[in-house]
Predict the structure.
Amino acid sequence: MIAEAGLAALWLAAALSLLQLFLGIAALRPGGEGLLRAVRPVAVAQGVLAALAFLILIWLFLRTDLSVELVAANSHSAKPWLYKFAGSWGNHEGSMLLWVTVLAVAGGAVALFERKLRQDTLIATLAAQALIGLGFYAFLLFASNPFTRLFPVPVEGNGLNPLLQDPGLAFHPPTLYFGYVGISIAFSFAVGALVTRDVGPAFARAMRPWILAAWIFLTLGIVAGSYWAYYELGWGGWWFWDPVENASLMPWLAATALLHSVTVLATRDGLRAWTVMLAVVAFSMSMIGTFLVRSGILTSVHAFAVDPQRGAFILALLILYIGGAMALFGLRVGTVKEGSRFDLVSREGSLVANNLLLSVILGIVFVGTLYPLGVEAVTGEKLSVGPPYFNTAAGPVALILVALMGAGPLLRWRSDRPSALVTRMSVPVLLSAASLLALIVLAPGIGIFPLLGLSLAPGVAAASVAPLWKRNLRRTPLFTWGMVVAHLGIAVSMAGMASESAFTKETLVAASPGQTMHVGPFNVRFDSVEPVAGPNWTAIEARLTARRGEGTPFELRPQARMFSSPSTPTSEAAISTVFDGQLYVAIGEEDQQGRWQIRLWWKPAVTLIWFGGILVALGGFLSLIGRVFRERRSAAAKEVAAGADMPAKEVLV
Amino acid sequence: MKRLILWVPLAVFVVFVGFVAIGLYAPAERTVPSALIGQTVPDFDLAPAIAGRPGLSSVSLRGNGPRVVNIFASWCIPCRAEAPQLEELARRGVPIDGIAVRDRPQDLAAFLATYGDPFRTIGADNDRRVQLELGSAGVPETFVIDANGVIRHQHIGAINPQDVPAIVAAWEAAR
């Protein structure tokens, strides 16, 4: 019965999204004003029902209800509860249900909380959100039903891929999806504003908190995914330019550009058409990413079977939504009036440069990810694009972007003197030049990208905090703090990336217990090997003692695990974080002479990569709080003022 | 002119849809040979994938008699299916060198312990660079290389029992 309730909730949510769409269209037609009030509650109800369907799926997984096909295929009764819980989205159908749930809940949240947007634009936005939802409900119900029953009921389930049996699964996909699918709000806002011809500063101010919220989640999701891949997949890398990773990076690049262009639109009423286009592109990248991952079209070379049915279904949705939005853009945006003009050397100018460079990186990643498909379509040749292309093509652009990021916030709006910028940038430039010299002298022979990254980082970090210089810190607006923290985070993260690629030390040895190994500044003694057991696995655990010079020794316990369901070996690396980096140890098999394969990495400053990423998200969060708080306060002030000397009509607006 | 620019995003998207639709419905036959067949293997030097055993370099492939190079990974399911055929090749006297793609020594050792170890040497290709340079797009793939280091034959995908004679024949022809 529970599974049927979930299916019913899903059907009802789909029906409500259809109702939401038609109500929205009817309300926007002449004479339909009476229906305006009905749209919001329908959107909220749709969000609640979709969330209910998703909760029911989680419940089925927690109970290990094996009469449900999805549970039987992906779960097992002996699995720890956390992985039963998180396993509900560790598969195709469950993750698509999470996708649709986020879409519906985001629409519901807009219906509940959005008060600044013009009424008709809001209704058009909700109708657009309902239209997107409708297609993906159809995809779930007709091509990926998570609630299908299985008969006869199996005695035990197949279990979850042990690579996914990690706390990372509980955190990474939901966070990523909140950002990835949450950015649909920006898409719907853009479509709504195009329909009602309402592209302007008020629209931008209303859209900004929603973009910020989605962008924070997206940032956190990518950071979490990167760290998860780093310790669980253990090739010692933190980014692989894999199509699936690129699928999450592309919306982030577009959303980051959007976040900056929407500021120009909100503050100076510039970049109208461009901002609308970016809002469409950001979520289009999410949908294209979903398509690339779910259709298996890119990872399918030999190892996976392609499911062209599902792929074709999502492709049809892409044509409908992205094609539709871009056609609407072509038709309508010409009627949007030009925004205000500005000088090249100005805050606006630097934000335009930011947008162009982010778009170039987005283009590089997009082309690199899809190039194999394009080549195959034209010549039939099969090839794949790897890190050499991405690093060489995107690296220099990213470095220029980061350097400009330091200068941008130090420029005035509308127009500024280049000489003033030179004065303000003198300290950061000197810092970077000094670091460059120091690196060339002290660490000769490191690659050009790490070298530039490491020397840029201190200068950019200094420039990032420069907007706080000589300001009363308590009266500085929270969103200025947000910008400072986020930009500082980028500098910190870049320092980590550059340090990791310049200074990592690696050794692979066959060692017997009692032997001592060396990696970087550490001496590591291999003490013993012990068998250990967990709830659904057994393992061989190595005990090692690491010591840096004469410092305090500490223990490391890497494991070679064997999971019982399904029976799969995995490796659990032992990672020890010290103040200036990480010591990473993995253990392999025993050979005939009783020696064990041990791989050791010393990665100086590697943690800065993710710490910087968290700072970036924190900056976004401060900014969001600052914006919401300020809008509230100014709205309250306006109401007081309006109540005092304006007729009631003004208050209603 | 300005109005035309507004349609550029849509045009780019249409091109994307075209490529993707072709990719989605392309014939299942995807065995397109490497562009390097008939040419010398590119220069590379891979570190050992397993401690205490030799790695693989282009130098060791030249002037050492004809051999088979198998590109595989412990995480690759078809590689498990082709393992018995590699054992069969080794039994027939074909020397096999391995390139382990994006693998970890401990997983690799477990893989070799479970599915057999016909490899003379195994190089670790952690960033897939050598795999791409050889013109291989996926795992598993198998190359027959003659005594001068020239690629003579490429087999894409898992080696099935019926593929073994063709690979042995290519190896004998390369002598």
Summary: DSSP finds 20 helices and ten strands in chain A. Chain A touches chain B through 61 residues (CB under 8 Å).
